Amino acid sequence: MDNFDYLILGAGPAGLTFANLLKRFRPEVSFLVLEKEEEAGGLCRSKDVDGSPLDIGGGHFLDVRRPKVNEFLFSFMPKEEWNEYERDSRIDMGSYEIGHPFEANIWQMPQDEQVKYLKSIALAGCNLGVPKPEKFVDWITWKLGDRIAEEYMLPYNGKMFGGELDQLGTYWLDKLPNVSFEETLLSCLNRKPYGTQPGHARFYYPKKYGYGELWLRMARELGDHVKYDCAVSEIDLAQKKVTCKNGESYAAKRIITTIPWTSVSSYLGCSEEFEAWVRSLKHTGTEIRYVAENLETEAHWIYVPDEKKAHHRILVRSNFCEGSKGYWLETNLNRLGIADQTGDAVVTGEQTAFPNEYTYPLNTIGKPEIMKKLLAYARERDLIGLGRWGEHEHYNSDRTVERAMELFESIYQ
C-alpha cells in the first residue's frame, strides 16, 4: 500500500486546484489524486457532440468577478483562448420571454401583466412587516409575492430540485439577486432593470473548446499524480486509508475529499453519529440532452418554469460556443418520464444524453448545523471536505477553485 502526504479524492475543479498548488509551490510534498472517471473535470467535463463541444454536467461558465481565481486558471488556459460575454439569461413565460432575474425585468411584460405582478409584490409579506418564515415555499411567497411564487419560482425550483421543496431551508436564499418593490416599480416606469446583478453577469467561455478543456489541461500538468478509473468505496478515518472499488488501497497523512460524502459505501473508524450525518445529506441529479435544431434567441440560457415540460433549463450552445449549433436541455433525473414538448435529439451515431447522478447538493433544513459538525469531526481526523461536494454547498466552479486556494493558503500561509 502506497503512502502519501496527501490523498485527494476527485479530479474536479477543487481537487485539481489543490493538487496543482501543491505541485507548483510545495514540490517536496507527495500526493495522489484518485478519480473514478477515465478523465478529469467532474461536472465540468465536455464531450464533442455533433461537431462541437457539449458540457455534459450542465452549463458552466467562468465568472469575471474573481480576478485572483482567473489569473490562476489562465496560467493553464491563457486568457486569449477565451471569449468574454455579457450575460443574456431569460425566463420562458410561455407566450413571451423576459430577462432574469424576474423581478428586475417585469417591465418587459405586457403592461396589464406588469400591474398584476406589481400589486402582488406590494402585498408580499416582506413589504408588510410579516416575520420571515423558515420554510422555503413560504419564504418565496413572503419575499416575492404570490404571483411570482406561483407562476415562476415554485414551479421552476420544483423542477430543478425534483419536487424536494418541502425539505429546503431558507438560509441560502440571501445570495439571490435582491430587488426591492421600489426598484421594481422604478424599472417598470423607466423600462430598465434595477437592483443587484446575478452571478455571471459577465463571463468567459473558451473560444475553441468546451469548458472541460481547462480541467483536462490542469490534469495533464499533474502527470502521474492522477490515477483514473479509481472509484473510492471505503475511507478508514482511523487508519487514514482509502480503498477503491478495484481493490487498491492508499494511505496518507491527510485526505482531501471533493467527492460526495454519500458516494462512499463505507466509513470505518468513525462514530454512528458521523454516519448519520452523512446519510442525512440530500442531492439531485440531472440529464443533459443535446437537441440539434437552432433556437431563434440571443439568450445564452433560458429558465423554463412550465411544469408540462420536463426540462428546467435550456443552454443555447450556438450563442456562446463559436461555430456550434443546437442547444442542450437540463432535466432533473426524477422528471425524465414526463412528456416533453421539445424536439427530440436527432444526432445519429453519437451519445446525445448524459446522466449525472450528483449535480446539486440540496440545502435541506438543518444542513448548515450538520455540515459544521461533520466537517469538524472529519478534520480532527485529517479528512478535509472541499468544494461543492466536500462541503455540500452549491458552489460554481470559480468559487470552488477559490475555496481550494483558500484551503491551501490556510495550511501553508
Secondary structure: elements and pairs:
Blueprint: E1 2-9, H1 13-25, E2 31-34, E3 46-49, E4 52-55, E5 62-63, H2 67-74, E6 82-86, E7 89-92, E8 97-99, H3 111-122, H4 136-144, H5 146-160, H6 181-190, E9 202-206, H7 212-222, E10 226-227, E11 232-236, E12 241-244, E13 249-257, E14 266-268, H8 272-280, E15 283-291, E16 301-303, E17 313-315, E18 327-332, E19 353-361, H9 367-379, E20 383-385, H10 387-390, H11 397-412
Helix pairs in contact: 1-7, 1-11, 3-6, 4-5, 8-9
Keywords:
7-stranded mixed β-sheet, single chain, 413 residues, 8-stranded mixed β-sheet, alpha/beta, 23% strand, globular
Please provide a brief summary of the model.
The protein has 413 residues and is of the alpha/beta class. It is built from eleven helices and 20 strands. Helix 1 runs parallel beside helix 7 (212-222), helix 1 (13-25) packs parallel to helix 11 and helix 4 packs antiparallel against helix 5.
